[in-house]
Design a protein that fits this description.
- With about 170 residues, the chain is an all-beta fold.
- It has no helices and 16 strands.
- About 0% of the residues lie in helices and about 50% in strands.
- A 4-stranded antiparallel β-sheet has the order 1-2-3-4, with no helix packed on it.
- Strand 11 and strand 12 form a beta hairpin.
């Protein structure tokens, strides 16, 4: 398992690429003409990469993985969720600024029972709060249009909210 799995661009020239299964993070500053190795995480399967500006970025994926950078991706700090008896798998995320964000996916208990989950942070990932207001699907991707309007998809369904995630309607 290697190869580009996710891309993120913050403008016409600066972007990052994330490999699947090898933890390589590549960066371009010339609109993708050249790519350089920016950093490397462990070999977990990472699903998404997002930057809120040139310095602040996030990665999420399997094995409770949430990472944050404050230096454009050169170094990454774990902001992972650790709750005894659970493993988390994050497939989607959206950060509106370096401090406030949302991750979606599932959690699995020791008996391998899976539960849908959305976690939010307002502390740059130092703490996470599980929200009970989410659509009845395992969220694979999410797009926020603004603070109140968002779409999520998973399990062959699309849901939308117009009130910041308190209520979800199938589209």
């Amino acid at each position: 398992a290697d190869g580009i799995h996710a891309l993120e661009f913050i403008n016409n020239s600066t972007g990052w690429a994330l490999t699947y299964g090898t933890g390589l993070i590549l960066k371009t500053t010339d609109a993708g003409k050249t790519w350089e190795l920016c950093s490397r995480l462990d070999s977990a399967y990472y699903e998404r990469i997002q930057f809120t500006d040139r310095s602040h970025g996030w990665i999420c994926g399997e094995k409770n993985s949430i990472f944050k950078t404050e230096d454009g991706g050169n170094t990454w700090e774990s902001r992972s969720v650790r709750i005894e008896g659970y493993r988390y798998y994050f497939y989607s995320m959206h950060f509106k600024n370096p401090s406030e964000g949302v991750v979606g996916g599932m959690k699995m208990d020791l008996k391998k029972n899976m539960t849908r989950i959305i976690l939010t942070t307002t502390s740059s990932g130092k703490s996470w709060i599980e929200t009970k207001d989410h659509p009845p699907v395992f969220i694979i991707d999410m797009v926020y249009l603004d603070n109140t309007r968002a779409f999520v998809c998973g399990e062959n369904s699309i849901y939308r909210t117009t009130d910041g995630g308190k209520n979800w309607q199938m589209v």
